Here is the input.
Amino acid sequence: MRNYFLETERIGFSTWDMNDYDLALSLWGDAAVTQHISKTGIFTPQDIMNRLKKEIENQQQFKVQYWPIFEKNTGDFIGCCGLRPYDIENKIYEIGFHLRSGHWGKGLGPEAAKAVIRYALFDLDANGLFAGHNPNNTNSRKVLEKLGFTYVGDEFYEPTGLYHPSYKFMFNIDGGNA
Here is the structure.
């Protein structure tokens, strides 16, 4: 059983460690998941290991990562949702989520993202969040818009070689989206 540092009604958030390669493989080894986050549409085993190491480094250095998430009732691995550094000087983090394809369409992405937004505001004292998505991933666009993110333009994303629609969610003093 994993320890959770953050929870929603259905989801528990944990942290990645080097013993989680099999979980990482089940997520980033699925071409349905990686089709929108890499130029080739797939992650090699080395890409997966590098991604796992980067998440662990982000947690150590910045106290954030795209945290692994689990169904609380079953312990089933859902995917990841969390933060990474974006504009640390201005306390703006990038939010993202990658869900295993068997968990799509259940409302888990928005549920997890709402918890991460609250965490960014109340635990990290963030000023705002940034998000982007592959232009071919309309479901991510819909989730970001429902969460209250505002489109700010397209930004080049080197891992895909594409310009991704990009969004910001800025916190105002009372905790709402400015």
In short: The chain has a mean pLDDT of 94. The domain at 6-125 is CATH 3.40.630.30 (Aminopeptidase). Residues 32 and 95 are 20 Å apart (CA to CA).
